[in-house]
Design brief:
This protein has about 350 residues and is α/β, with parallel strands linked by helices. The protein folds into two domains: about 170 residues, 3-Layer(bba) Sandwich (FAD/NAD(P)-binding domain); about 140 residues, D-Amino Acid Oxidase, Chain A, domain 2 (2-Layer Sandwich). The protein is about 25% helix and about 30% strand. It is globular. The structure holds flavin-adenine dinucleotide. Flavin-adenine dinucleotide (FAD) binds next to helix 1, strand 15 and strand 20.
């Protein structure tokens, strides 16, 4: 069978690309996803933050633009705008501010201790408040993209794995559900993007998956569901309210080739150590749940969106690092625009060609 465009991966990269592409592309589009449940890996199991205050200016712009789109689709995709509080030294926090794009202001640490008593006993120099940060319902957002794409004719095959790729420019792709011929292969395979690229003879872009854990903690301390998410830049932890408890990350980062989402046996000890040293109000908290998933990024920690330089008709939507939710709308929009650009030039933001010297 033949399809004009074959997208590999049904996380935010692939789903948002399919959603946007299907609005203007009239040819046939097939999206394949290895798992039975889309989002089983990073996209459905992350912290769901929409974080505009982040150091990379291009990513900031992508998150700000995406947030605007999320506001416009609020009736279909629930979001919460409880803001963010970044704690830390002024020089760490200044890198996150972008007063041209969104307003952030410093708050008195004493006032923050009163607002969020869980921080009692934790000392920090400054608190940067961004009222327009927030979080999304990630499973609804992912379904919104996939259903939108389906309603405009995109075929979505779940439980379908790309196994092998033959050909150059026109690809014969062997999948677990048969062979598909395509003249455009879109690599949205998240932590597996380098494996897909290698199969297709595309450039070696140094994308590195690293494992990170998330915990849900229960505590007798009062948790207000309207709290902002709190991110300590210097002590490396963040948390936000989650179904009566706290979603908590110790910002661990373990680079690995083993892409099984197993839980590191020492991780609960690392959490206990951090809580003991930094957050005395959480010392009695219990762990309701813990899991791991993968963030994948290149050395400059920016996205990779555009045409490959080594393989014809091979397009990257990868390296989304820790911003695949916050920036998902814009990622798919940029990818769809790049895929339909007849000049096939490298884009100004996130070009794959920036790695060509390293090959
Ligand atoms: C702990 C943690 C917390 C995070 N918190 C946030 C946050 O708060 N805010 C935020 O913006 N981002 C966050 N992220 C990052 C976000 O989750 C990712 O940027 C995003 O989900 C990546 O999307 P993706 O589509 O590139 O990858 P994925 O979601 O992994 O999707 C890729 C898909 O490709 C499929 N695939 C791979 N190989 C094949 C193949 N051969 N054939 C068929 N299908 C294949 C996989 O099964 C997978 O479903 C977090 C990440 C982690 C790990």
């Amino acid at each position: 069978m033949k399809r004009d465009i074959l997208i590999v991966g049904g996380g935010f990269a692939g789903a948002s690309t399919a959603f946007h592409l299907s609005q203007s592309f009239s040819g046939s589009i097939l999206l394949i996803e290895r798992e039975e449940i889309p989002g089983f890996h990073a996209s459905g199991r992350n912290a769901s933050l929409v974080l505009q205050s982040t150091p990379d200016p291009d990513i900031r712009r992508a998150v700000v633009a995406s947030r605007q789109a999320y506001l416009e689709h609020r009736s279909r995709v629930p979001a919460s705008d409880h803001g963010s509080l970044h704690l830390g030294k002024k020089e760490s926090l200044e890198k996150l501010r972008d007063l041209d794009l969104f307003a952030s202001e410093y708050r008195d640490p004493e006032e923050i201790h009163r607002q969020i008593p869980l921080l009692k006993g934790h000392s920090f120099e400054n608190a940067l408040w961004t009222s327009t940060d927030g979080s999304m319902d990630i499973s609804v957002l992912l379904q919104f993209y996939l259903e939108g794409a389906r309603s405009r004719g995109v075929e979505v095959w779940l439980d379908c794995e790309l196994l092998q790729v033959d050909g150059k420019g026109t690809y014969r792709v062997e999948t677990s559900r048969g062979t598909v011929e395509t003249s455009c292969l879109v690599n949205a395979a998240g932590a597996w993007a380098c494996q897909v690229a290698e199969k297709a003879g595309a450039a070696r872009i140094p994308l590195v998956p690293s494992k990170r854990h998330l915990f849900v903690l229960d505590t007798d301390e009062k948790i207000d569901p309207d709290w902002p998410f709190v991110w300590d830049q210097d002590c490396s932890f963040y948390f936000r309210p989650e179904s009566g408890g706290l979603l908590f990350s110790i910002c661990d980062e373990e680079e690995t080739d083993n892409l099984a989402p197993t839980v590191n046996p020492e991780i609960s000890e690392s959490l206990a150590e951090l809580v003991w040293q930094r957050l005395p109000a959480l010392r009695q908290a219990t762990q309701r749940e813990v899991w791991s998933c993968f963030r994948t990024k290149p050395p400059d920690a920016s996205f990779v969106i555009g045409w490959d330089l080594a393989a014809d008709n091979f397009f990257w939507v990868a390296g989304l690092g820790g911003h695949g939710v916050g920036a998902s709308w814009e990622i798919g929009r940029l990818a769809a625009a790049g895929l339909q650009d007849s000049t096939r030039r490298q884009p100004d933001c996130f070009p794959p060609a920036r790695f060509s010297a390293a090959q």
